[in-house]
Amino acid sequence: MFDLINGLPVHPLVVHAVVVLLPLACLGTIALALRPAWRQRYGVLVVACAAASTALTPVATSSGEALERHVGDPGVHAQLGDQLIWFAVPLLVLSAAMVWLDRRRSSDRDGRTGSVGVVRVVSVLALVAALATSVQVYRVGDSGARAVWGDQVASGK
């Protein structure tokens, strides 16, 4: 299904969306964790980036498997790419929880719901998830670039 569009492989097209949106979600989550005042204004945008990149990650891996049938095994890149969803999902869940808890706490005038401590714990977990996801995105991208370009650049073709 995710093989070709107009004769071109889907994988590079979808991967570029993930490569842009997932790091943006990571940077946004880090910013929101460190600057709580920004959560009201930018929280929905950060969660939307995380949601879109999480939804596109399985499309990228499926299209990569389809591309693999045409060009051969990309080695470690495929293994790292398959692991990326396990970083994207926690980032999405934790960034959404951080924003939701913060909004819920700020909308409750009596202070009965959601303590500041819970929001802080979730923010720290979201920060850790964003840092881990950033590292994994780098690892996947680096291995993919090496799989595609490594031999050509090294040999001077």
How many structural units, i.e. domains?
Answer: 1
User: Can you summarize the main beta sheet?
Assistant: 2 strands, antiparallel
Report the principal-axis shape.
elongated
Spans of at least 5 consecutive residues with low confidence? none
Pfam family, one: DUF2231
Keywords: Membrane, Transmembrane, Transmembrane helix
Protein name: DUF2231 domain-containing protein
Organism: Nocardioides oleivorans
Describe this structure in words.
This is DUF2231 domain-containing protein. The chain crosses the membrane at residues 13-35, 42-64, 84-101, 113-132. InterPro entries: DUF2231_TM. Keywords: Membrane, Transmembrane, Transmembrane helix. Residues 7-154 form the DUF2231 domain. The chain has 157 residues and is an all-alpha fold. The protein has one domain (4-151). It is built from 5 helices and 2 strands; from the N terminus they run E-E-H-H-H-H-H. The protein has a two-stranded antiparallel ribbon with strand order 1-2. A hairpin with a 2-residue loop joins strand 1 (4-5) and strand 2. Helix 1 runs antiparallel to helix 2 (39-71). The two termini are 33 Å apart.
